[in-house]
Amino acid sequence: RPRVLSGIQPTADSFHLGNYLGALRQWVRLQDTHDTFYMVVDLHAITVEQDPKVLRERTRRSAAQLLALGVDPARSALFVQSQVPEHAQLSWVLECQTGFGEASRMTQFKDKAAKQGTDRASVGLFTYPVLQAADILLYQANEVPVGEDQRQHLELTRNLAQRFNNRYGKTFTVPEPHIVKDTAKIYDLQDPTAKMSKSSSTGNGLIELLEDPKKSAKKVRSAVTDTGREIVFDAENKPGVSNLLTILSALTDQPVAELQNAYEGKGYGDLKKGVGEAFVEWVTPVQERVRSYLDDVAELDKALALGAERAREVASVTLRNVYENIGFLPPA
Ligand code: ATP
Ligand code: MG
To answer: How far apart (Å, rounded) are the C-alpha atoms in residues 150 and 137?
Structure first.
């Protein structure tokens, strides 16, 4: 089985519907076909300032949500990045293979630094893509699921792997992007031309998995729709209706064409009601599972410790090879 690795940051109290339909649902599905390594990337989270108590809480909440959504610890290594010290260790070695100019060209850093001001942006934010390369290369991952926003970082990872292999002998698998066919891009309910996102969506445009489902249904009912009254998928002219159809189709596994037929002659209000109901029905048991994982933190921490142990079995072998190939003494 090809190996795949992915991570998500513990930087919100709840994942949102875009995270699930655009990424986490594929994590769950990949378990059927791939050898899967999934992590909560707390090292990445501290590239911007975090409150320690909140970070710890969000790390557990993230793990609980992943479990509740269907990441299965019997099939996947599910772990917290900081509990596998090899990530930070490999990252240093890779930083020394990365050109300063090369790192400076990363557009995500440029965007984020421009927002924060270069003086306030941390060096960690600058080297973030190198840590990401370490995350991937430690596990000899064959594939990495990537959205458009991560393409440049994966390219850097591939370059670093090839460069290291050329200089020091074959050490890393060069990973390929895993393009997932049926990922949905979800848009803000209040501005269906903008991506739903935790940092830029306003409260009413964002559906959080752990918020009161009644509130979610209400947000859907007040979603911005379009002129006209026909329920047809037309991303250009009817972004609001199209977004709702995308969400409904993903939640019910019904093709958009079928939904269009089912809603023929009905109005926007009916569609919104349908989407709200489908979401509530889907999310209610998810929330129950999250709550039960968070009710027993000791058990949750134990599951994560086991996941970290599994991850380290692979990561420590890679790191040992790296240290040997680069000329360090054998482990003391
Ligand atoms: P930020 O605003 O801080 O970038 P975000 O809401 O975009 O946060 P991320 O943590 O960047 O969320 O993304 C986690 C995963 O969810 C990524 O794989 C990303 O591609 C995916 N994702 C995020 N938002 C959406 C969306 N609206 N539709 C589909 N996928 C999404
Ligand atoms: Mg994002």
So the answer is: 16
